[in-house]
């Protein structure tokens, strides 16, 4: 990557920057206003407290972010700033996630279906990082604005 960035565990002082970052990538998430979504804000606060929120920072600005669950072994949210894509930031976030688990653990991510606007790009990214597309799941809790999810799992990591 041309520019330097730092991966770190998000702290409470990063909360507002995180929300600003989420707002900057909202068009990639069905244009849902995550910054003002009370459920999303609560989830980010919980992940920050649990130390399961990772950010990629470039000069104090968040350019990538990810939350994950140790219990269910899944990436719950991952995004990279549009101008910073294809520079290894997303892959670095996924590798950080992988490093938290045993090599034989089955890891998961829910993402867009391939027919969604961001789906083709997300599918290519997760396949490149060792995930396999599996079933499609309905958005039963409404957290994805009613859009179904594609489930990806990673069985073997190098």
Weakly predicted, low-confidence segments: none
Dominant shape: globular
Q: Strand-and-helix sequence, N→C?
A: EHHEEEHEHEE
Structural class: alpha+beta
- What oligomeric state best describes the polypeptide chains here? single chain
**For the CA atoms, what is the radius of gyration?**
15 Å
Strand order of the largest sheet: 1-2-3-4-5-7-6
Q: How far from one another are the termini?
A: 21 Å
Commentary on this structure:
The protein has 158 residues and is α+β, with helices and mostly antiparallel strands. It has four helices and seven strands. The chain is globular.
Supply database-style keywords:
alpha+beta, 4 helices, 158 residues
Helix and strand arrangement:
Elements: E1 6-9, H1 15-24, H2 38-50, E2 53-58, E3 61-69, E4 74-80, H3 89-98, E5 107-111, H4 119-128, E6 132-137, E7 149-154
Parallel strand pairs: 4-5
Antiparallel strand pairs: 1-2, 2-3, 3-4, 5-7, 6-7
């Amino acid at each position: 990557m041309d520019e330097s960035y730092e991966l770190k565990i998000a702290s409470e002082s990063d909360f507002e920057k995180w929300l600003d970052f989420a707002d900057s990538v909202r068009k990639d998430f069905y244009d849902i206003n995550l910054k003002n979504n009370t459920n999303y804000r609560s989830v980010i606060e919980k992940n920050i407290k649990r130390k399961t929120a990772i950010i990629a920072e470039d000069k104090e600005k968040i350019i990538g972010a990810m939350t994950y669950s140790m219990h269910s072994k899944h990436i719950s949210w991952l995004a990279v700033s549009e101008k910073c894509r294809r520079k290894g930031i997303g892959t670095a976030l996924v590798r950080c996630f992988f490093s938290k688990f045993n090599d034989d653990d089955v890891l998961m991510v829910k993402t867009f279906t391939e027919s969604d606007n961001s789906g083709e790009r997300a599918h290519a990214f997760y396949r490149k990082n060792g995930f396999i597309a599996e079933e499609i799941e309905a958005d039963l809790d409404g957290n994805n604005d009613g859009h179904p999810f594609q489930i990806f799992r990673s069985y073997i990591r190098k």
